[in-house]
Amino acid sequence: MQNAKPVLVVGATGFLGNEICRQLIASNKNVRALVRSSSDPSKVKMLREMGVETVTGDIKVPSSLSDAFDGVAAVISTASSTLSRQDGDSIESVDRLGQLNIVDAASKAFVEKFVFISFLESAESFPLQDAKREVEQRLVDSNMNYTILRPTFFMEVWLGPHLGFDPANHKATIYGHGVNKISWISIKDVASFAVQSLGNPAAVNSVIDIGGPQALSPLEVVKLFEKETGQSFELQYIPEEALRTQKDVSPDPLQQSFSALMLNYAAGAPIPMERVLGQFPIELTSVLDYSHQFQEHQEVQA
Fold first, then answer.
1. CATH number, domain with residue 85
2. Which residues span the domain enclosing 47?
3. Does the residue 226 lie in any domain?
4. What is the pLDDT of residues 281-301, one digit of tens each?
5. Three-state SS for 234?
6. Domain assignment present for 276
7. What's the CA dihedral at 15, 189, 149, 197 to 10 degrees?
8. pTM above the 0.90 mark?
9. Facing residues of 74 across strands?
10. What does the buried/exposed string (b/e) look like for 20-41 if buried means 16 or more CB atoms within 10 Å of the residue's CB?
């Protein structure tokens, strides 16, 4: 184990990156994480206590990356500026240029495998999608064995209070009419796909759309949570016209991107998973499972 080439995780202090590290360690992989000197010390400590080797570098600074890539067998990159950011972080500096720096550094270091976490392709044009697609193309054009994972909406994010879904207070924000189905996916399951992609022949030079086990509309999700909690929800609807206006007039690339993602939410994102699950033996988390976990957490907190 000590002599095995490490898997480098970029974005390891985030929710998804941390879970990927946990699953890699559980599968007896030698794991290295790229962390910044400004990373949250408690998160870095958690990685080290898990058994992860940490190396300091910043994807915005190519010259800082050489130590992290030394002797690496594979890279899994989840880094993004969308959910957490520090000074100087933006879609341009992190999601586009930073990720391009990672692909180039991996290629120069003769990394054998690169797994990139992207997201489902959209008919909308917006900065985050433009950045992801440019990185994807750089990967496809590289000399590496690549896997591009395109998950749909993370239930822990889009069915959480930061984006208006607040079961603890029996409230939910609905983007659009809320009737189109989405294959909500758990962060844990996206991590499992990333880890399994390292050695799965079906993942070689592949772009794979991934979702959860069942497509439910946002209103169906609300009814499920109402049944689970025994409480009716207060709903706030944000019309697609308002989201479109917000996307078109906002000068902020991040706001433009979230407005576009909300339009995608309104349009629905069902993903048939039968074929993919035939290649990746993963027991997917359902929204019902997620609602049970939420209710159990509430009961523990009470």
1. 3.40.50.720
2. 7-152+186-211+272-284
3. no
4. 999 999 999 999 888 876 666
5. strand
6. yes
7. 110
8. yes
9. 7, 113
10. bbbbbeeeebbbbbbbbeebee
